[in-house]
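Next up, a chain.

===
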Amino acid sequence: MTFTDPSAGHGATATFAQLRDWGLIWDTYDPAAHGPHRMPSFYPLARHENWWGSTVQMGVLLDLAKKHGIPVAWITPAKTLRRLAAAGAGHDDKLAVLTADEADIQALCRLKLDECTDEWITGEVETGNKAMAAWADGHHEAAACLAVAGLEQMLHNLTHEPRGRGAHGRLRKAGQKKPNDYLPKHQYALAPLSAFYTPYDPAKNKAVPTTLSRHAVVHHLPLDHLSPGHCIIAVMLLVSIIRETQDRYEGIRDDLLMQVSDDL
């Protein structure tokens, strides 16, 4: 397998399908095995930085997010993604990887939260900082509860789904959408909502969802549901959504600046 800049072979006439295929090839790139190579300029536009060098295909990442509720965008180290992909299919197998890699995940969460400087999200960042502080101090359940409580308004802002009757179902569907072919990475930040908003009503005496459940935490709070792995997922989800919000707002500001420039 040769890793070169695809634009060198296709130039300006490269089709999107050709670029997409090169992206799939680069998803298998392992710097340790293949050595250093120049990354195609288009690649970061469609892949989160933490995916680079993980060798994990995007379909597997999507499965981790949708099926297990694990945030894969922004804040999961590449080596953790690789270990998650290689772990057993059971949910507990995935949680075991997260708890084993907790220190590395926490460090990347801290780094990504520090990148969130937009004045529009100062309150959200403060919530993230407090959740991170509780996590760092070993108060996992407290950190998880704060993270779950702090998510919802940001999710409505990102998805443009209105509040009101059926809102949680709409947020779940927002996480189930197929990633866009041109800029797919944005949907990966929302994909964990597919599991996070799994329907659950404690009054119906049904089993608590296996994956981290917003409804179980808010309406029931069984402490065994807030396992170490689920507590990690909760804070990961909060930080990833804050970082995704930062990214979206940067895009909005760039668009506004371009409009102002065009009007001058």
User: Anything to note?
Assistant: Confidence is low (pLDDT under 50) at residues 1-12.
